[in-house]
Amino acid sequence: METNGHPSAAGCAADLAEVVPAVMRVIRAQMRRRSAEQNLTVVQFRTLAYLNCWPGASLSDVADHIGVTLPSASKMVWTLTSRGYLRKQTDSDDRRKSILAPTAKGLRVLEKSRQATREHLAARLAGMTPRERAQLCAAMQSLRPIFLADMMPARSSKT
Asked: What's the pTM value of the predicted model, to 2 decimals?
């Protein structure tokens, strides 16, 4: 739908809803490929990525983000910690709460995966004209404040 020659919000929303899942499938496939090389499950990799964005998140935050129970999240965090990808500390304000963050090893795995994914995406975008790429980048910059502000994790009082 257009209004005065410009796409409507509903039209833009329809385009986003169609294209974003396809882009995410490509990104996820690349990330899965890299996480498999590191002998990580997709859920473990997602946990590392989440904690990279939100260091200090609690076990409850992780469980909520990846959609698993607290016992499942606890087992996964134990595995990642024992393999050197995460560090777990007791919150100084609430000893019942664990604070989680990636280690240097975990950060290296994430960066290698993200770099490989960026290279894959760049190869796919290379077929666009410079003007099309400039328009795409401008659109991404416009979307940042609209969608990235919603990415703050919900902090809980649970462990």
From this structure: 0.72
